[in-house]
Fold:
Amino acid sequence: MERRIVITGMGVISSVGNNVNEFWDSIVSGKSGIDLVTHFDTTEFKTKMAGQVKNFDIEKYMSLKDARRLDRFCQFAIAAADEAMECAGLPKDLSTVNPERVGVNVSSGIGGLQTLEEQAATLREKGPKRVSPFLIPMMIIDLGAGNISMRYGAKGPNFSIVSACASAANAIGEAFWIIKRDDADIMITGGAEASITPVGFAGFCSMQAMSTRNATPTTASSPFDKNRDGFVMAEGAGVVILEELEHAKKRGANILAEVVGYGASADAHHITAPAPGATGAIQAVKSAIKRSGLSLSDIGYVNAHGTSTPLNDKQESIAYKAVFGDYVKTVNVSSTKGSTGHGLGASGGIETIVCVKAINESIVPPTINMVEQDPEIDINVTPNVAVSKKIKAALNVNLGFGGHNAALIIKKFE
Structure:
């Protein structure tokens, strides 16, 4: 009998809330988490705003001494994982399950950029002997997963996937397959990112990828709007607990939803621009739907990548029209990046949580800041105000530089 994979826990750190309930309330009410950057002086930067995490207290999770040995993205990953573990009813020592059957796949698109910047400055100003011995383990992306594994004693498969803004979605999808093939019973999975730094900002500004509507930060991220001018960078983490159904039932876990489909593909086209005709995105979404065994009409909600860039939003809409056909006028589409900003490699984790909540609460969250929908994006975008709707299944799409495409299908547990 094929192993079914369910979600039993969720945790989030974001610009609009540092726990799932606060986060979801903000998303549904159309709150924006975007404001002027306070992490560093943006005087010389074209973009001066971001979706920064607010009121984050690392001492709720660990001592300051331990925190100093972790980059900010790792701190976010651990905080989100702690909430997800508690939600799943799993003790931190994994004493009620077999730790050898618990794995971790928590990813990041960029990793410890803040640490790298700080230590590069130390090298220039004070010489190599003053560079921290923790530079490498603080910087490399796999230490998000590694530190979570060590925190709980999870001894199953442990690694990270790097596919830019598709990283967390790919992580969840591959964790799904790990459990499917019986290499684990539980996977702690998702993504974390903390790249609101001078170098991170300078790089994206030089690409002219980010919005420059600095005078009105809260409305700068406007997915699918006619006058969108770029994405707004955000930080945070989204972590979910995937679990084999019978294992979850046996321990009396609260089952939140079921993961039924995953598709991944490559554009094989350009380092940043999506493929003409959205061919890669179409392939990933079709693969996820085929794996799920669902019909198109079973999918009531699409959480789009929807970055608010001119190229992405238009190409993504082409993908949905190609996949859904006439049904594209019925299925509700929204991008919650209008509220949160673009969490880069954390997006797939954060937005999977949106899909689970949308299904369980029978609510389609809004795409805020929609003044006038781009006429070339003729899909059923849900603008500005959440709507009530029974949702059997939701599609979560994330696309990344390098031509990476990932699609997940989350279904109401029955």
The chain has a mean pLDDT of 97. The radius of gyration is 20 Å.
